[in-house]
Amino acid sequence: MSICPPYAPFFGFAGVASAMVLSTVGAAFGTAKAGIGIAGLGTFKPELIMKSLIPVVMSGIIAVYGLVVSVLISGSVLPDHYSLFAGFTHLGAGLACGCTGLAAGYAIGLVGDSCVRAYVQEQKVFVGMVLILIFAEVLGLYGLIVALIMNTKAISVDVC
Amino acid sequence: MSEQVAVNKVAADAASTAQLVKLLLFSLSLGIVPIASYFGSLEYVWNGNATYAALTAVVGANIVLVGYIISSVLDDKRETSSPTKETKKTQ
């Protein structure tokens, strides 16, 4: 039972894939759900569309978080001298970023949809909407920070 | 009356083209800025420290987001102030 088996990069690349895929699923749900609300708003007040696209941009940022973590982890995975510990850590980092991105995208979608519909009737909802969206986005940021910390731990330990 | 409607329509078309271009620029920069800042800062600023480079990319993406929010709010203020100026001129 060696510390650096040849199948260790499987877990590392599984972390890369899960970071990108899961955060993209969250961003897609956020974009789609908010886009439904914006399409409904556009029939009544087209001049409000530019401000109501903010949930869509924030969903894009969630996908960017997943992209950054994927690029970061895939830069550290090696074919040789890559321990199983590093593989598991990279898998955990990718899952942390991906699942929090999924949660953040889900929240942004639901909040964006209903707040954008309320914005048609009451203009003062805008500031509240931006604040709620920022809090939903920070959930994805927490996952990214944990992924960064775990990645630092994976590449710092050198065992074989 | 119909002349004013036509002028307003031309102005609205020009404004919507400008808005579309601005939206396109923000979408492209949201894709390009994080990756470019990650690899650029990894190479030239942080001397290979990948964690700081990732944090730089995240800060860059959030700067693009804040820029979009500010520009949409300023757009809205400009649009709500210009129709009142037009009504003052007609009076």
Automatic annotation (TrEMBL), chain A:
Membrane topology according to the record: Multi-pass membrane protein
Homology family: Belongs to the V-ATPase proteolipid subunit family.
Location(s) in or outside the cell: Vacuole membrane
InterPro entries, sorted: ATPase_proteolipid_c-like_dom, ATPase_proteolipid_csu, ATPase_proteolipid_su_C_euk, F/V-ATP_Csub_sf
Entry keywords, A to Z: Hydrogen ion transport, Ion transport, Membrane, Transmembrane, Transmembrane helix, Transport, Vacuole
Pfam families, per the entry: ATP-synt_C (PF00137)
Organism: Roridomyces roridus
GO molecular function: proton-transporting ATPase activity, rotational mechanism
Assembly behavior: V-ATPase is a heteromultimeric enzyme composed of a peripheral catalytic V1 complex (components A to H) attached to an integral membrane V0 proton pore complex (components: a, c, c', c'', d, e, f and VOA1). The decameric c-ring forms the proton-conducting pore, and is composed of eight proteolipid subunits c, one subunit c' and one subunit c''.
Major subcellular location class: membrane
Occurrences of domain V-ATPase proteolipid subunit C-like (ranges): 15-73, 91-150
Functional description taken from the UniProt entry: Proton-conducting pore forming of the V0 complex of vacuolar(H+)-ATPase (V-ATPase), a multisubunit enzyme composed of a peripheral complex (V1) that hydrolyzes ATP and a membrane integral complex (V0) that translocates protons. V-ATPase is responsible for acidifying and maintaining the pH of intracellular compartments.
Signal peptide: none
GO cellular component: fungal-type vacuole; proton-transporting V-type ATPase, V0 domain; vacuolar membrane
Protein name per Swiss-Prot or TrEMBL: V-type proton ATPase proteolipid subunit
Transmembrane segments: 6-32, 53-73, 93-113, 125-150
UniProtKB/TrEMBL annotation, chain B:
GO-annotated biological processes: vacuolar proton-transporting V-type ATPase complex assembly
Keyword line: Cytoplasmic vesicle, Endoplasmic reticulum, Membrane, Transmembrane, Transmembrane helix
Membrane-spanning parts: 20-40, 52-74
Any one annotated GO CC term: cytoplasmic vesicle
Name by which UniProt lists this protein: Vacuolar ATPase assembly integral membrane protein VMA21
Organism of derivation: Roridomyces roridus
